[in-house]
Design a protein that fits this description.
With 570 residues, the chain is an alpha/beta fold. It contains 20 helices and 18 strands. The structure holds zinc ion (ZN).
Length: 570
């Protein structure tokens, strides 16, 4: 039994994610986790919310809540939506957990001991009225470029010019409105990524099986311009992991927290500790420590392309720099972007479909199928309502749903709700078994290689093969001359429904459960031997005709949704 550690990039806490976010990490990770479990492998599948940093503080302030309360509430919202999409995390953790605090402080201590952290004196804006240093986004003022009066310290939203807080005319604190600001010296810690460059390059170069999208981004950051730079790992904020050197205080760093990019990926490990502490597992080290049983673990990470630099360079720098035997990632599956109907998803303009809205209008499987079968792998892809409607109506309703409906209803009318006995398989059936065997082996290869679109295409072809068989075998005609032969055909077709449920479960888990319940079986055995798998349901085995597996999307609905999610016009 192989062992698979699987993590999805952790979504930021402030707000509900859109379908593009979902298909860029959590959903394909879930597909892979479900597939590995279906093959009988041991899986630990982890995800969490990324909770620290300025945007969380700002979102909490906007909601009028303490940031800890805001994060707890949003975690619960995200967890419920993940559940709604049937994302089968073994644990959905939080980067603000005590486990992550301790582990982040531990890594910082190890890196400091290894000489990989340097202290840097900087000047930063301090607000006397607020009694704190202000991050760039907490300072607003008049843009020196266009005169816009609410330009932020990092950028002017009106003319898009990148700014430093000191560029602003009449700057003020967005917390208190105070203009009593001054530049003060403050100390920050930097991770000496420059010292790790050779080691990281060597590691990246050893990953010859990684997608080009992943390695090209890593190499660009390693080598373009001046190459990989040292990076600040601390901030003057209240909300975050307090800066400590392991268990010890860090002189001069009182009141500071680690920068969110440093503690967020460490949560992958901390999440497994949370999993154990929640009573769901009993040993996290055998997944993460190569000296404690993790040497045979295959670790795969899923993420959007914007997250690749952190996962190929920054987080490995932390892991390698610690000098401890932590498990490094074996394979990074990265995705391009999903666009929405001729443009981009926009949170601020309400443009596009967000995860909660999607579940309000259709069950999870409809979305899972479309998103995965159109995953933005080799290039960006685009969601259109026309394509969504066509894909659902054709693949799910006409091909899979219709097959199930015809087979079960015909059997009920001629043989009753049991698998009929009699007859034998002929040449047509043997040809079908041969085709299915070839296709299922190809499906396994694509799934193992995380070729998401190719897997969906192969699965669809497997459904189509059953439909074509039914069309050519035509048991409704056979029945008139040779009821025994029709019985054998229908017996095979009923077994195909179980086979489809097993194979389709990583993509459309709810429909698979429904089909298995209708077939009154709990035999989820993978079809290593296809001919054998098509005899799993024996003559006399009872079943029920399921309700409509997938309904069609009407033109009216499509138009309605198109308008509803088009976004407010500016
Ligand atoms: Zn401006």
């Amino acid at each position: 039994m192989a062992r698979h550690l699987i993590t999805s990039a952790i979504p930021y806490i402030n707000g509900i994610k859109h379908l593009g976010n979902l298909v860029g990490s959590q959903l394909p990770a879930d597909l892979f986790a479900r597939y590995q479990r279906a093959r009988g492998n041991e899986v630990l599948f982890l995800c969490a919310t990324d909770e620290h940093g300025t945007p969380a503080e700002l979102a909490a302030a906007k909601a009028g809540k303490p940031v800890a309360d805001y994060c707890a509430e949003m975690w619960a919202v995200q967890a419920e939506i993940a559940d709604g999409f049937r994302l089968s995390f073994d644990h959905f953790g939080r980067s603000s957990s005590d486990q992550n605090k301790k582990l982040t402080q531990h890594f910082a201590g190890r890196l400091a001991d290894a000489g990989l952290i340097r202290e840097v004196e900087e000047t930063q804006i301090y607000s006397k009225a607020d009694g704190r240093f202000l991050p760039d986004r907490y300072i607003e003022g008049t843009c020196p470029n266009c005169g816009y009066e609410s330009a932020r310290g990092d950028q002017c939203d009106n003319c898009t010019k990148q700014l430093d807080p000191t560029d602003l005319i009449n700057p003020y604190s967005t917390i208190s409105g105070s203009t009593d600001l001054e530049e003060r010296a403050t100390k920050h810690l930097y991770l000496r990524q420059t010292a790790m460059r050779g080691k990281l390059q060597e590691w990246i170069d050893s990953k010859t099986d990684w997608p080009i999208l992943t390695t090209s981004i890593a190499n660009k950051w390693l080598n373009d311009g001046d190459g990989l730079q040292d990076r600040g790992i601390t901030r003057d904020l209240d909300w975050g992991v307090p800066v400590k050197k392991g268990d010890e205080d860090w002189p001069g760093m009182e009141g500071k927290v680690f920068y969110v990019w440093f503690d967020a990926p460490i949560e992958y490990i901390a999440c497994s500790q949370e999993w154990v502490d929640a009573g769901k597992g009993d040993d996290w080290q055998r997944w993460w420590r190569t000296d404690k049983g993790a040497e045979d673990v295959t670790y795969t990470q899923f993420m959007g392309k914007d997250n690749v630099p952190f996962h190929t360079l920054s987080f490995p720098a932390t892991i390698l720099g610690s000098g401890e035997p932590w498990k490094l990632v074996d394979y990074i599956k990265s995705f391009n972007y999903l666009n929405y109907d001729g443009g981009q998803f926009s949170t601020s303009r309400g443009r596009g479909v967000f995860m909660d809205q999607a579940l309000e209008i259709l069950p999870a499987d409809y979305w899972r199928w479309w998103l995965l079968s159109h995953a933005p792998e080799s290039s960006d892809s685009e969601f259109t309502w026309e394509n969504f409607q066509a894909s659902v109506n054709k693949d799910l309703a006409d091909v899979l749903g219709n097959f199930v409906s015809r087979v079960t209803k015909f059997c009920r009318s001629k043989f009753g709700e049991v698998v009929p006995e009699g007859g034998a398989l002929g040449e047509t059936e043997q040809a079908l078994i041969a085709e299915l065997t070839t296709r299922i082996r190809a499906y396994e290869d694509h799934m193992a290689a995380m070729e998401v679109r190719k897997s969906a295409q192969e699965l669809r072809a497997i459904w189509v093969a059953g439909n074509e068989y039914l069309q050519s075998a035509a048991p409704w005609s056979t029945f008139k001359e040779d009821p025994e032969k029709a019985a054998a055909q229908i017996r095979l077709a009923l077994n195909l429904i179980r086979l489809y449920a097993v194979l389709s479960s990583p993509f459309i888990p709810d429909a698979s459960d429904t089909l298995m319940a209708a077939m009154q079986t709990d035999d989820w055995g993978w079809p290593d031997d296809v001919a054998g798998a098509l005899e799993a349901l024996k003559p006399g085995h009872a079943f029920t005709v399921p309700d409509v597996t997938f309904r069609k999307i009407t033109d009216d609905e499509r138009e309605d949704w198109q308008n509803r999610f088009a976004g407010k016009r500016d």
